[in-house]
Structures are given as structure tokens and as C-alpha cells.
């Protein structure tokens, strides 16, 4: 209706990017998301996820959601996953 991505969709893309082995054996303990800019209808979205480091046995991932062809992020997030 307003032709831009809802903030919840960014978080869904973040969680969808987690490897299946993590989703099957860990639970989402923490998510810290930052919404920076809107993505609009017709734009191609790129979801980037990389392993982070921490001092615990938890799994940490750093996420960036951006519009294809740009360097400006629409959203960033950090997720922490704990062993089941």
C-alpha cells in the first residue's frame, strides 16, 4: 500500500539467513536491529550475514540488508544464538 518494506520484513530476512545447522541446534537468544533507510517496491534486496566472534559458546552473526548496487545499508543487525 505504501510501497516500502515493513520493518518486520528486515528481521525476517535476518533470521532466514542463519544456517540450518544453527537453527536446528540453537535458539535465538538476542537480536539487535537498526533500521537505517527504506527499501521500495521493485528494488532488489541483498542480505549479507557473517560470523562474529564472542567469548562464549554462543553463536554470533552480523547482518546487513542493502539495496543491490548500493553500499548504503537499509538495516543492520546482530543475532546471538544459544545451544539448545
Protein architecture, described:
The chain has 84 residues and is α+β, with helices and mostly antiparallel strands. The chain has one domain (7-83): Roll (Thiol Ester Dehydrase, Chain A). Helices cover 19% and strands 44% of the residues. It contains 2 helices and 4 strands. It has helices at 7-16, 20-25; strands at residues 26-35, 45-51, 59-67, 73-83. Strands 1-4-3-2 form a 4-stranded antiparallel sheet. A hairpin with a 7-residue loop joins strand 2 and strand 3 (59-67). The chain starts with 6 loop residues before the first helix and ends with a strand.
How many structural units, i.e. domains?
Answer: 1
What's the helix-strand series? HHEEEE
What's the total number of strands?
4
Beta content: 35-45%
Strand order of the largest sheet: 1-4-3-2
Amino acid at each position: 500500500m505504501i510501497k516500502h518494506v515493513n520493518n518486520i520484513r528486515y528481521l525476517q530476512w535476518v533470521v532466514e539467513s542463519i544456517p540450518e545447522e544453527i537453527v536446528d541446534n540453537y535458539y535465538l537468544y538476542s537480536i539487535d536491529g537498526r533500521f537505517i533507510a527504506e527499501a521500495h517496491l521493485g528494488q532488489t534486496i541483498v542480505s549479507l550475514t557473517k560470523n562474529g566472534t564472542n567469548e562464549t559458546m554462543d553463536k554470533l552473526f552480523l547482518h546487513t540488508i542493502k539495496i543491490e548496487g548500493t553500499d548504503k545499508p537499509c538495516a543492520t543487525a546482530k543475532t546471538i544464538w544459544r545451544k539448545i
